[in-house]
Design brief:
Layout: H1 2-13, H2 25-54, H3 57-79, H4 86-116, H5 121-131
Helix pairs in contact: 1-2, 2-3, 2-4, 3-4
Membrane topology: Multi-pass membrane protein
GO molecular function: enzyme activator activity; glutathione peroxidase activity; glutathione transferase activity; leukotriene-C4 synthase activity
Main location: endoplasmic reticulum
């Protein structure tokens, strides 16, 4: 909702109608940042859902909240210079990688239980609980 309101606000301050606003770099930046955030949202939801379901819900929820904060930072950084958005982008990639690795660990644990009868769920939850605070390091 914040991103959409920013796009609407910039759209009202530009002269012209529709999305063809030549020379409006402020609108272009806001619109592009909104599109970038919208394109990564389905991937984030899929990774969050898989990590929480297959591995551990608490670290996945923490990583999800961090990701939403990082996308906000990315969006606000994109409104300034494009180089200001780079830390938010890289931080977001790291969180998506963490969620992906949690999903893979959950899938591997399922197959280890299915084929060998070995359950490593407690070890995986301990490791993810220990690693999730490291996501706060920029």
């Amino acid at each position: 909702a914040f991103f959409a309101s920013k796009v609407e606000h910039e759209s009202k301050h530009c002269n012209g109608k529709g999305f063809q606003r030549p020379g409006s770099s402020a609108f272009d930046r806001v619109y592009t940042a909104n599109q970038n955030c919208g394109h990564t949202y389905p991937t984030f939801l899929a990774m969050l859902w898989c990590a929480g379901l297959l591995c551990s819900p608490a670290p996945a929820a923490f990583a999800g909240l961090m990701y939403l904060f990082v996308r906000q930072k990315y969006f606000v950084g994109y409104l300034g210079e494009r180089t200001q958005s780079t830390p938010g982008y890289l931080f977001g990639k790291r969180i998506i990688l963490f969620l992906f690795l949690m999903s893979v660990a959950g899938i591997l644990n399922y197959y280890l239980i299915f084929f060998f009868g070995s359950d490593f769920e407690m070890y995986i939850k301990t490791i993810t609980n220990a690693i999730s605070p490291l996501l706060l390091i920029p």
